[in-house]
Amino acid sequence: AFAQREPFAADVALFVDERSVAYYRHQNLYRNMVGDTIAHMPKAGVTWDFYLLSDLTHEALPDYKLYVLLNAVDLTEDTRSALRAKARRNGARVLFMYAPGYAGENGLQPGKIQELTGFQVSVSEVPGPAAYSVLAGHPLVTGIDPSAELGAGDTLAPRPIITDTEAEAIARYADDAGVAIARKTVAGVDTYYCASVAMPVDLYRDIARAAGAHVWCETNDGIFTDGRHLAIHAATDGDKTVHLPGRKRVMDVVTGECIVPAGDTITRTMKAGETLFVELQDL
Fold first, then answer.
1. Cβ burial 8-38 (10 Å sphere, 16+ → b, else e)
2. Among 4, 93, 134, 143, which residue carries the largest CB count within 10 Å?
3. Long-range contacts for 77-81 (Cβ within 8 Å, ≥24 apart)?
4. 70 pairs with which residues across the strands?
5. Largest pairwise CA distance in the chain
6. In whole angstroms, how far apart are CA 265 and each of 133, 228, 241, 272?
């Protein structure tokens, strides 16, 4: 398989900033924002790549449909400029998490969050819940229970709260302190901001879909693919459907069986923990 590999770029790029790690206490909230996000992203059902934030300025970085900055509280101007240029070039979306740009040489500055994201925010030093609930009826959250408390279960301090009246609210904090997730067009770029530290994979999927990403699976099972080979790892018992980006011949890598002679979906009843590993062949 390695001999036949071709370059493959995913639809979504996640960035972790090695410079910003020093600004965070090692606690559950940071694990929620970075470690848990990376661990659960295969269940989002979209293709994604993982980078250090310093890679964002590299000439060889492919174009993506959605750029996600997980922990970038201290950004260089070169990184900011590269992000804006890449997003504008192909109409990509950008998603910021927690407190982007908040820290730097001059200490903690709430105004820097607005400068980077384009969203007006206030930052509360009073501990409050990191959890939030989505707004019922919002087109981005179909299938997500508006009564459910999402995100991390701990308290958050400092806690950014989105106060921008021009932004489209998507979720509010569990204590109704204000908007926790919102969307806004900033300098021509469709921008999302989650002021808390974690999002469910369903919401990552919906934002990626809105950005034009292909959704391979909707059932929160692990999806791994390089465009030629694909594995689905069942998180639960039940019927699984994988939507291919085009018509393919699908071969079971383990058994050699042709399970789809020509089609754009794979359907399978699977047990939790079972893995199907296939090759996607052009017709």
1. eebbbbbbbbebbeebbeeebbbebbbeebe
2. 134
3. 79/53, 79/54, 80/116
4. none
5. 62
6. 33, 15, 7, 20
| Angle in degrees, CA 80, 225, 4, rounded to 5 | 105
Residue with token string 């922990």: 71
The answer to whether residues 86 and 58 touch, using CB atoms and an 8 Å cutoff, is no
Report d(CA 99, CA 145) in Å as an integer. 26
* Secondary element (H or E) of residue 78: helix 77-90
14, 41 Cβ separation under 8 angstroms: yes
Q: Which amino acid does the sequence have at 188?
A: G
pLDDT digits (tens, 9 = 90+) for 32-60: 889 899 999 999 999 999 999 999 999 88
- Give this prediction's pTM: 0.94
Mean pLDDT for the chain? 92
Residue 95 above 90 pLDDT? yes
DSSP, collapsed to helix, strand or coil, labels residue 110 as helix
Which residue type occupies 149? E
Structure letter (DSSP) for residue 62? P
